[in-house]
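User: Can you help me understand a structure? I only have the sequence.
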Amino acid sequence: MLPYNEKLKQLARQLRNNMTDAEKRLWSRIRMGQLEGCYFYRQKPIGEYIVDFYCPRAKLVVEVDGGQHFSNDGVEYDDIRDDYLQSAGLKVLRFSNADVMKNINGIVESVLENMEISEETPIEKIPLNPPFSKGETNKSPFGKGRYRGISEGR
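Assistant: Let's start by predicting it. Here is the structure, written out as tokens:
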């Protein structure tokens, strides 16, 4: 597991809840093992940074950049950030919001082309519906005719 600053966890949660339209669009195409069975995390803290998407099996970071990334300061900051991520053994792909919105199929194809997966790296299996514990069922916790404290006969 890559090291990260624990103080970034709350900010990462906020970013996951406030994704841009471009991030949402890409996430809908790469989530839940849709690409070669590989799982991505979104808004994942790595070191002192939060990356948009991270696939540990492919050692791949995918960034979706808005306009602020194209200013002189933004480019300089991203270069420093990318150097750090590359020094951690990760490959970094960057796409603009506009590219994602206009050419999602091309972006997904580019991500697939850049996923270098070795046979030694196991696929992470995340069950969609975890099995029930012994004695648990899928029945509702509310009895028949009861919901939010309203009992039968009322």
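Now, to help you interpret it: The helical segments are 9-17, 21-30, 72-87, 97-102, 104-113. The chain has five helices and four strands. Let me know which part you'd like to focus on.
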